[in-house]
Amino acid sequence: MPTVKQLIRNARQPIRNARKTAALKGC
User: Fold this and answer.
1) Burial (0-12, 13-18, 19+ Cβ within 10 Å), 18
2) Each residue's pLDDT tens digit, 1-27
3) Alpha-carbon distance 14 to 17, whole Å?
4) Is the distance from CB of 13 to CB of 21 less than 8 angstroms?
5) Helix, strand, coil: what percent of the chain each, to 5?
6) Quick one: pLDDT at residue 9?
7) Contact, 10 vs 20, CB < 8 A?
8) What is the DSSP letter of 2?
9) Which controlled-vocabulary keywords does the entry list (predicted)?
10) pLDDT in the model for residue 15
């Protein structure tokens, strides 16, 4: 359930960031 900010950040930054967020979220 990513937020708008997360989606924008993901679109702007590479998938590397998304992986980090997923690891931090642990979902």
Assistant:
1) middle
2) 667 887 777 676 666 666 676 666 765
3) 6
4) no
5) 75, 0, 25
6) 72
7) no
8) -
9) Chloroplast, Plastid, Ribonucleoprotein, Ribosomal protein
10) 62
**The pair of three-digit structure tokens given for residue 5, joined into one six-digit string:** 């900010």
The SS3 assignment for 1 reads: coil
Name the 3-class secondary structure at 4.
helix
- Dihedral angle sign, alpha carbons of residues 3, 7, 8, 9: positive
In this prediction, residue 4 carries a pLDDT of: 80
Q: Which of 20, 18, 23 is nearest to 3 (CA)?
A: 18
Please give the structure tokens belonging to residue 24.
């931090």
